[in-house]
Write a structure and sequence with these properties.
Helices cover 49% and strands 0% of the residues. By secondary structure, the protein is an all-alpha fold. It has one domain: ACP-like (Non-ribosomal Peptide Synthetase Peptidyl Carrier Protein, Chain A).
Amino acid sequence: MEEKLMKMLLEVSPEIDPSTVHDDSRLIADLGLTSMKMMVMLMEIEDTFQIELEDTVNFQTVGDVVSYLKSKGC
């Protein structure tokens, strides 16, 4: 699951250096995702993992995404 997530991040934002991505990496502040890239990433998460994200999700870090996906059995 983490590999799929990393691939997704790199597709959405190719300028990300994979060696700098950790669970505590902040999606916007550290990885530089814009609001548009965040929207694309959320849609990709839904498509890739065949889930529907709740309206209340507010991913701040890579770890937030990983934890959420694990809680959904992905």
